[in-house]
């Protein structure tokens, strides 16, 4: 049986690299350390992330700075109501020189894809993106094309705009491993943004810290982070508690439990540990579960949120 243990020296070396990555991104993004850690943990877990926040909170800049720092290819799609699936995945075009059709790849063929305002895209286009996210491949006229590795979709959604948007079905939202809320900066952070605006606005001076091969090694290493059976029981109990909560109509599915496990392993790696502790599970609980809970109408009338439900569950479930 192969040795799957991770040495202390190995995780400490990669922690040093990842600390440098986050510091490099924070040359352009003020604060947001925990949000960046969750996005990195999602990447190492081979998942995708949904960023929610009002306009102007640096969601696009964060995605671009992340791609540059990791040495990965980056592309962006601005969702609009007339966006077609072919605008995302590509299309066969006629080549007069050969008399046949050739496949022209769409922007989905990249390492980090920023899908801006995903809920502005029509349902058919959202479905095309879903296959790419889930299967890491696209199918055009019966031909299947593999996507490059690594592949991370960062989809943004504006929680306050409703006009001209298409609601994301629960099944599609559930495909995102993590949901990260990008809130307003504090007063001190806003002052820092104003002081550094001229420097922040330009990405040309940002240099890669990692490369594609190192990112792939980190993805493989994340799978080897040790998770004790008591931690797995803790995760399962948290997920079960969301289903039994009186204010929850639909609790987290088994995919929610898997998200908790994967993100906990990714966060442990980022923090320089070869094993998961209960605090890792708690710190990723919002990201892993908040978009998977459907609350009862009385919960909304009481102004309860998925985050407040998760707080209640974490308070009641005893950690190991």
Automatic annotation (TrEMBL):
It comes from the Archaea. The keyword ATP-binding applies. SUPFAM superfamilies: P-loop containing nucleoside triphosphate hydrolases. Keywords: ATP-binding, Nucleotide-binding. Coiled coil: none annotated. Signal peptide: none annotated. SMART domains: AAA (SM00382). GO terms for molecular function: ATP binding; ATP hydrolysis activity. Residues 45-186 form the AAA+ ATPase domain. This is ATPase associated with various cellular activities AAA_3. It comes from Desulfurococcus amylolyticus DSM 16532. The lineage of its organism: Archaea, Thermoproteota, Thermoprotei, Desulfurococcales, Desulfurococcaceae.
